[in-house]
Each structure stands twice: as structure tokens, then as C-alpha cells.
């Protein structure tokens, strides 16, 4: 027996054993992966275009509510929503330049024109608030009917405006405050006209650039061109330098060159941004002026008669008035005699 065991261990051929039948495979009751995945997905109706549209509608509704709230906030602050919401919110940089709107011409205007001027001041303020480079803004000779309109007709919202000062004194008083703002460390000095430039289209001098430490005065008057040369005569009488915007040097216009107060302010703001009068005019001038750069405007169309151009501009200026005319108390500031008694020479 032992010999047989040794023989097997010493390399005897192995005996092949026939394998028996394989046990049966148990049935697979699990679902196919794809089928299981499909059943875990939400029903098709939940991912339809209707649900996507509902989400888009909710987003649009929230955006509309946000816009409406911002517009209401702007109106409550006395701002023009179209201007405020059109400009992206950027950090404004204060510059040592002042713009003074001279409101000493009340006796030259009827109530409807005073309403238009009040709207122009509001738009000028809105433009300055939204500007990248922000000068100091003043309104001088503040009083009379226009002040009453702001306090009564406009619910005194101007009291909450920022970056603007309403001065009861004249342009010299406003210029003195402007100097103190631009250089707080400066010693108080007597008021001089050296740092004041009155902007007038009747001036023989052209404004080439805006200089730091200078106050630029804009005549706050809407008179449909009845009182030609009024601002220029007032400035000469008081010994104040004058200058006019270089419109003719850069632009061709099928219209007169007299601009609304807010348009002059916007032109100056655009120049502070780009340093180019041509680009500033194109951005700020109203479309009804049909303004083109001088090198682009040669031979461009016919020029209308002066009377027709003035009539169209008067219609455009009336768009600046908001609301109905109101009964406002009489309180004239500058009389015609004060201005018309111009010193000769």
C-alpha cells in the first residue's frame, strides 16, 4: 500500500475527473440600469417649457420690481430715473472745478419758463450725481418763485440732494464758497472775479479747457431768445471774464447754438471724462440739434431758415418743463434796469 502511494506521488499520471453539470443560475429579478434610471427622473411635465417659462417669469418679475424700486427711490430723491439708472454705479471722483447756475433772471421769465428752468436744474443735478468726474455744483440767487416751486410743488426734495448747494447770495458768494470747498486750507479772502468765467454764446472768447480752481457760471434763464446777450452784458458790467463753448469749431448744427442749462452742464461733464470737445458735444447735444462733427458735416443737407430753427428749438425746450404751471409768489431778483445799465467800453 505504501508502495502504491509513493508511485502516485512520484509522477504517476493524474486521473481526469469528469465535471458534473453546473448548478442552475438563479433568475435575475433586478431591473435594467437604464430603466431604473428613467424611473428615478422626474416626470416629463416638470421639465417642460412651461416650468422653464415660469422660472424666467419669476426672475423677470423680480428684476422689474427691483427697477421700479430704484426708480421710485430716485424720484423721491428728486433725481431723474432715466439718467440715474442709465449710468452704471461707479465711484465718482471730485474735481476742483465748480459749476454755478445763476438764477438771478426771474423777472425776465414767465411762470411756464420758470417751471422749465426748475426741471433743467433737476436734470443738471442728476447728470452731475452720475458723472465719473464730479465738479462742485451751486445754484446762486436762490429765492423767489423758483424756490417756492421746489419747496411746494416738488415737496422740498432738493433739501436731500447731495453734492449741490443752494446759495441765496449772488455768483460772487457762490464762487467764494466754491473756493473754500476746492481748497479747505486756504485762508478766507475778499471775493474777486479772477477765478470766475461766465459762459455766454455772445462772448468773443472761446473756452479751450476747464481749469482747476475756476468757477464756471451758466445763466439760468429760459426766455426763448428774447433777451439776446443778457448774460454777457451782466458779466461785463461786473467785470467777470466770459467765454463760449467751442461749438462752431467742432460741430455743424442745423439749429441755433443756444443750449439749455442741463445740456451745458452735461457737455462739461463729458469733457472732464474724455478731454475732447467733439466727443463731448456728440454725447450731450440733443438729437433735435442734428449736430455733426465739422469734418463730417460738410455738405450735409440744407440749413433751415433762422426763424424755423428757433421755432423748433422752442418746442424742444418746452419738453424740459414737467407738470402744469403753478401759482408762485412774486419775488423778482434781478431787474432789467440792473443789467441794461451796462458800462460802456
Brief sketch in words of this structure:
It catalyses: guanosine(9) in tRNA + S-adenosyl-L-methionine = N(1)-methylguanosine(9) in tRNA + S-adenosyl-L-homocysteine + H(+). By secondary structure, this protein is α/β, with parallel strands linked by helices. It contains 14 helices and eight strands.
Q: Can you offer a commentary on this structure?
A:
This protein has 345 residues and is an alpha/beta fold. The protein has a single domain (73-326), classed as Alpha/beta knot. Helix content is 43%, strand content 11%. The protein has 14 helices and eight strands. The protein has helices at 2-9, 33-40, 49-76, 81-86, 111-130, 144-153, 171-182, 230-237, 247-250, 261-274, 277-284, 294-297, 306-318, 336-340; strands spanning 93-102, 133-140, 164-166, 196-199, 215-219, 241-243, 251-252, 292-293. A six-stranded parallel β-sheet has the order 3-2-1-5-4-6, with helices on both faces. Helix 5 links the parallel strand 1 and strand 2. Helix 5 runs parallel beside helix 10 (261-274) and helix 10 (261-274) packs across helix 11. The chain is globular and about 70 Å long. It starts with a helix and ends in a 5-residue tail after the last helix. The model is unreliable at 11-18, 297-315 and 317-345 (pLDDT under 50).
